[in-house]
Design the sequence.
C-alpha cells in the first residue's frame, strides 16, 4: 500500500512522466493481485482496472492484468 501512496505522490509531481505512470500502474496491479489472494474480490477488481487506466498502452501489464482477472473469476 505504501508503494501506491508513493507512486501517486510522484504522479502528482510528475504527471507527464511515463515511467512514473508505469510504476503506478504496476503498484495497482500488484495490490489487486494481493487482494485476490485475500478474497477481497471487489477491491481487487477496482485496483486492476486502475492499473489498466493508468498505463493503457503497456501490453505486458495488460497481459498480467488479464491473467489476474481470470484468476479473480475462478475464485468468484
Sequence:
Amino acid at each position: 500500500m505504501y508503494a501506491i501512496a508513493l507512486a501517486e505522490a510522484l504522479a502528482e509531481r510528475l504527471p507527464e512522466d511515463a515511467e512514473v505512470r508505469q510504476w503506478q500502474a504496476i503498484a495497482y496491479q500488484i495490490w489487486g493481485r494481493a487482494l485476490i489472494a485475500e478474497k477481497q474480490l471487489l477491491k481487487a477488481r477496482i485496483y486492476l482496472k486502475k492499473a489498466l487506466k493508468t498505463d493503457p498502452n503497456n501490453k505486458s501489464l495488460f497481459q498480467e492484468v488479464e491473467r489476474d482477472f481470470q484468476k479473480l473469476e475462478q475464485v468468484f
Summary: The radius of gyration is 12 Å. The chain has a mean pLDDT of 95.
